[in-house]
Amino acid sequence: MTQPRTHRLDSTVALVTGASSGIGEATALALAEHGAAVAVAARRRDRLEALVEQIESAGGRALVLEADVTDQAQAERAVAETVERLGRLDTLVNNAGVMLLGPVEGAPVEEWQRMVDLNLMGLLYCTHAALPHLLKAAQDGPRQVADVVNISSVAGRVARQGSGVYNLTKFGVGAFSESLRQEVTQRHVRVSLVEPGAVSTELAGHNRPEVLESIKKRFADMERLESEDIADAIAYVVTRPRRMAVNEILIRPTEQQP
After folding, report:
1. Which of 185, 90, 78 is nearest to 126 (CA)?
2. Which 3-state string (H, E, C) describes 100-169?
3. What is the C-alpha separation between 91 and 82, in angstroms, rounded?
4. Active-site annotation holder among 6, 24, 166, 201
5. CB-based burial of residue 49 (10 Å sphere; 0-12 exposed, 13-18 middle, 19+ buried)?
6. H-type helices in the chain, by residue range?
7. What is the pLDDT of residues 84-122, one digit of tens each?
8. Residues 41, 62 contacting (CB under 8 angstroms)
9. Which end of the chain has fewer beta carbons closer than 10 Å to its terminal beta carbon, N or C?
10. What order do you get walking across the sheet with 37-42 strand by strand?
11. Is 166 a catalytic residue?
């Protein structure tokens, strides 16, 4: 049987979380360039509106979703509105996340809660809400395949001092992704894990000043990745033929060691 061509995403719909900057913004642009209608979700509406304007000015179709995915109801509403307004859901990119580093001893526990809420629970809420729609898209969609792409980190593979709870959340994303993959892969919902190393984004900027200074020193002499590098990898993952699943991609700057 001849399989449908899948190198384009025409007539499909993608939802990208954490789309107001960095990897999420670049990914929304990349998927739109491949022909997908894109729902962009984040808390900063002004940035989302600028992104949608950029996509639409290039001939694409996009939808602003102001949402805090750490709230289950808002995550579910983002998925529901995507399907209601754009007609379906073929691709979910769980990109929203926060990286708050520092020693365990004396750490502000609220930082741990923020990471667990966003890096884990936000991803789980969005995936749970999206899964019925993705399974339907894989059954009757134009590509006969659907995708969940979970953005993890090299921190999901290598534990480092001062990164313990961030490591915990990203190792958890990897474990969940593989379990879900085994559950749905025979129904042609592909689950992929993308693990960036150091990328020039706003991610580190949420850290306390002393931690931020340490991060800057660590990467001062390294040419870091750009958001577009990760977006390109995500676009590669979701445009593969139906017969091919890219389960995991680790992407580090050439000069990065651990």
Report:
1. 78
2. CCCCCCCCCHHHHHHHHHHHHHHHHHHHHHHHHHHHHHHHHCCCCCEEEEEECCHHHCCCCCCCHHHHHH
3. 11
4. 166
5. middle
6. 22-33, 45-57, 72-86, 109-115, 123-140, 164-184, 209-218, 227-238
7. 999 999 999 999 999 999 999 999 999 999 999 999 999
8. no
9. N
10. 62-66, 37-42, 13-17, 91-94, 146-151, 189-196, 248-251
11. yes
Render pLDDT for 121-134 as a digit per residue (tens, 0 to 9).
999 999 999 999 99
Residues forming beta bridges with residue 195, ordered by sequence position: 250
Closest by CA position to 203, among listed 20, 7, 14, 63: 20
- For 225-245, the pLDDT digits (tens) are 999 999 999 999 999 999 999
Amino acid at the residue 197: G
Hey, where are the domains in the chain? 13-251
Closest Cα partner for 62 from 72, 43, 47, 76? Answer: 47
Q: How many CB atoms lie within 10 A of CB 209?
A: 7
Does the domain formed by 13-251 have CATH 2.70.150.10? no
